[in-house]
Hints:
Two copies of one chain form a homodimer.
Chain A: H1 9-12, H2 14-30, H3 45-49, H4 61-72, H5 94-106, H6 117-134, E1 147-151, H7 154-169, H8 173-176, E2 185-190, H9 196-203, E3 211-214, H10 224-236, E4 240-247, H11 259-268, E5 272-276, H12 290-294, E6 302-305, E7 318-322, H13 325-332, H14 342-346, H15 365-375, H16 377-399, E8 404-406, E9 414-419, H17 423-436, E10 442-446, E11 449-455, H18 463-473
Parallel strand pairs in A: 2-3, 2-4, 4-5, 5-6
Antiparallel strand pairs in A: 1-7, 6-7, 8-9, 9-11, 10-11
Helix pairs in contact in A: 5-15, 6-15, 7-9, 7-13, 15-16, 16-18
Amino acid sequence: MSTxxxxxxxxxxxxxxxxDVTRWLERHREGAHTQRVWSECAPGDxxxxxxxxxxxxxxxxxxxxxxxxxxxxxxxxxxxAPGWFAWFxxxxxxxxxxxxxxxxxxxxxxxxxxxxxxxxxxxxxxxEWLRQAMGLPDRFxxxxxxxxxxxxxxxxAVLSCLVAARDRATDGLARDQGLHAxxxxxxYASDQTHSSVLKAASIAGIGRANVRAVQSTADGxxxxxxxxxxxxxxxxxxxxxxxxxxxxxxTASGAIDPVDTIATVCDxxxxxxxxxxxxxxxxxxxxxxxxxxxxxxxxxDSWCFNPHKWMGVNFDCSCLWVADRxxxxxxxxxxxxxxxxxxxxxxxVVDYRDWHVQLGRRFRALKLWMVLRxxxxxxxxxxxxxxxALASHLADEVNASTTWTLAAPVSLGxxxxxHVDGDDATQAGINAVNADGRFAVTHCKLHDQLVLRVAxxxxxxxxSHIDAxxxxxxx
Amino acid sequence: MSTxxxxxxxxxxxxxxxxDVTRWLERHREGAHTQRVWSECAPGDxxxxxxxxxxxxxxxxxxxxxxxxxxxxxxxxxxxAPGWFAWFxxxxxxxxxxxxxxxxxxxxxxxxxxxxxxxxxxxxxxxEWLRQAMGLPDRFxxxxxxxxxxxxxxxxAVLSCLVAARDRATDGLARDQGLHAxxxxxxYASDQTHSSVLKAASIAGIGRANVRAVQSTADGxxxxxxxxxxxxxxxxxxxxxxxxxxxxxxTASGAIDPVDTIATVCDxxxxxxxxxxxxxxxxxxxxxxxxxxxxxxxxxDSWCFNPHKWMGVNFDCSCLWVADRxxxxxxxxxxxxxxxxxxxxxxxVVDYRDWHVQLGRRFRALKLWMVLRxxxxxxxxxxxxxxxALASHLADEVNASTTWTLAAPVSLGxxxxxHVDGDDATQAGINAVNADGRFAVTHCKLHDQLVLRVAxxxxxxxxSHIDAxxxxxxx
Lengths: 475, 475
């Protein structure tokens, strides 16, 4: 077979190659506990190691794996290390991996219902399972006027919703004639909101200057009075407010906006309310945190969280629910002749290509299938509680210390600290932790002060790792 | 371990579970030759099979796999079947799968260079290897003012380039102040261009009405005189032409626009020229077709093709090259404090999050790594030639027949045919093929006539499958 069809050489040995890859992965996974967390590579080191010209003759899979060890592994950052406290967790939980492999190998293209009924309907149900497990409101339920969809990232999700809001507010004018025919539109988010809102407004033609960074209160949550004032001032000056992004778990400090009161303001002005719970959303799986996370969700037009952050599902997997799918589909649907088919024409099926930017789509719901079935929601809730307990433990150490202090209230698994001697000392702490090899931390600024963020969410993190981190900070 | 950390139960058995999944996949892959290609499920069948409520207690991986067989496999469409002739090929070549598994398990987040030097630099080099193998011009080379990036889909790639063009043409006004502050912008593509251009213009706030569907000539290629006339008329009426998408291999019939003459027109008006070779681009790996595919690429601002179509790489993997990365980065870059880092501030590294819509990104370059190294470019070129030869064989049969006729010139592996008795007879042929069980075909319209498309690109397709298809059409 390989003589006549050399491009199928890999098919003949697939099972054996997969077993080789599995052995490689079993070994590689141990490296999460031993390899330095940050790569020691300098810019260009990986490039220098790789062959400069495209190879013409094929090599064996085992050779390719050896080369990965030699050339690529040194350039990896161990996001899977127990000492990973940087940015936010982004794991590759094993059941998710199995689902990802299965989905990839099934080679489905879920753009239309007819192009993969399984990809479409498993996704519908997995979003419904998650909705139930997280206690999200009925307005997002399967079978209702809204529903759920897997987006690649929260950035794409907020862009999709912003465009839907833009087109709804302009009654299709922005979509059909373009924004030059509309007046200035304005978008609201707090000064702690993720940069994806600014990027989305930029992509959607609304303009970065028309994103209002509403001031936050001392704890980092949006000041709703300021939101209300800003909206009123914008309306008076001829702008049209269309979209507000509330954050449940801000990137810097995990601050949680008061979604319910924000919703009241949005409702007064027919503003689309989107909730970005990209990181914190997973905590709704735990009964202890559910009410905090989903507060106000029953008043939101759209609600998003990323299983590829805290929930352990490997990238990419961002879950978006909308209360009304019509404006989203109105914004995203373009149907040329070659995509027409009877089920679509009947209006009785979900064609997920109309729910986001992309046309093609991967069978990502199988990752959720494997995690929800084989790990289970109780175990995930236990994981959340474990991480929050570790954060609380670290906060206790900080509170008892004379050198470090909390820079913000602890939010779930996120602990923000600063050195009492100021930014230079905080930076020295960050440097010491990152130089140690076992840990990774990143920074933010709060109230103009440098902050060391400890984002606890590794699948393998234990109290010993927190204590070791604290040991380094104690110098 | 599983008692104290139930969310890690999957970690303990990962190797064994992967071997179970591998055995499942070995069996499942055989189904590509025996299972009906289109699913027989009606809307709701998969949903009806799945449990309605989220399970609380975990099940074993083998149970989850059994349930996939029972509930999910019937809803799969066998895009991997040798008789897959619908839309375009979308395969899951085995070496690509191995790379995908490796990349997923490494849990990298390639948003910044510092968040994964390996993810970033392997991607840079794989795009360079592909550029070399396809003969793409030096303007797209690694180390130059442009470069390559993996996008998820050609839809996202054209959106990214359109936004970059929009912001370049308005000197940042659209990005910063919004399009309401700019005059009407216009976009050009032929009436055969993929719907993603219309969708991108809609998302970017330019408006669908400002996308000019330039007429195509009898063979489906853009009429450059018409393009030139349309641009001139738009300028006279106060519009600002900013972007043109040329298609190399149209979705309907595989028509190839004259990129070089289009480029001359675009150059006269400083219009960004994007080339969409999503499907046909893979043919540049074959020396026989390279010149046809890359003609004019040295005059394009951006050039895109999807290895997840004809090249066999499993979804998603769309390669985009730009001649100048500055406008793309100017459009897409937003850097909040928490993403700042020394290598980024130095300007000496590539941060790929600034090259597309999303912030997070998967280690997709490993799929290309495995395919280019373990399958090799010669084998891929042989595959292209094989598919083109099969298309030629089918065309010979059609040309010798009195019932079917070519509806367009054969383009690479795509054969468009229609019945001489008209649309009803063509539809009957489409129905017969799709009812057979071994095949999938889809339709398009050319010159207002219904067309049966035979898109040959399955990894396993042989002359016998073409002959069997032709047998069904002979009725």
